[in-house]
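#structure-requests
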Amino acid sequence: MGKKDPHIDAYIAKSAPFAQPILKRLRKLIHAGCPAVEESIKWSCPHFIYCGMLCSMAAFQEHCTFGFWKGKLMKSLARTKKSEQGMGQYGRMTSLADLPDDKTILEQVEEAAQLNADGVKVPRPKSKPKKLLKIPPHFTSALKGNPKAFATFQNFSFSHQREYVEWITEAKTEATRQKRLATALEWLAEGKSRNWKYENC
């Protein structure tokens, strides 16, 4: 059997008059579509839980929103037209007319509940490939000739490594480049980043 949270009753009661019938209708249909659902307030708005997060709704000053946590995987949402504004799968709602019909909402709640019951996970976005830093051969050779500097450089973050590489490669003359290279090796051997002078300001 499902579980209702009195905090959601209070949330609906405090919502704007236009929002109350929308939230009440959604709540009723969520319980009808998933009788074992439990309610909770998370991130200051009503959430519905069944084998994990199922869906959530929220009321604002001028509109309401509603969304399923696994909406990207739900086939039944393809028939639901969403306004371009607002969060969630139903977009910006200002009256009951903005909701899909009851049968459609029930079907969607049932599908969302089945996805959770089956333990289906939303695929994580693929991580972007790590950026490769092009280190000039003369800098690599100089680093390898100074074990302390090389170890520091290897342990630095990508951004810290890039700062040194750019500083050296952007030198306009060979003399300046050599001077910067010597300074870089000295600072790296001491464990310092390129902008170490400003880090404790």
